[in-house]
Specification:
47% helix
Length: 112
């Protein structure tokens, strides 16, 4: 895992590369049909930044996304499931997930 400052630097570099790609192609605004070479990378970096802000360094990478507390698997496309189960659920954002599914005593300790 990387620190928050490193993730923010990576995000800036990816957004600059994306903007350069758009200007080379002649697009004035982001075209929803041509996301560009860094679209998924930018989404993943933003997801990791939110994880670091909400859970600190208490998460691990997983083939489907990330694992929190060896119990929950979260994906960047707003889905989560319990480890060992096959049913996927949706969440609005990471803050909402944290407030709904973690006990209040654990919530207070995260991110500090």
């Amino acid at each position: 895992m990387t620190s928050l400052s490193e993730l923010e630097r990576e995000l800036e570099e990816a957004e600059e590369k994306q903007a350069k790609w758009y200007s080379e192609k002649g697009y004035q605004d982001e075209n929803p049909y041509n996301h560009g070479p860094c679209h998924h990378l930018i989404a993943e970096i933003k997801f990791e930044i939110e994880l670091v802000k909400n859970f600190g360094e208490d998460w691990e990478y997983h083939p489907h996304g990330v694992v929190i507390e060896n119990r929950y698997i979260l994906t960047p496309n707003h889905k989560w499931r319990v480890v060992g189960r096959d049913k996927w659920y949706r969440y609005k954002n990471i803050e909402d997930f944290k407030t709904k599914y973690f006990k209040s005593s654990k919530r207070e300790n995260y991110g500090s």
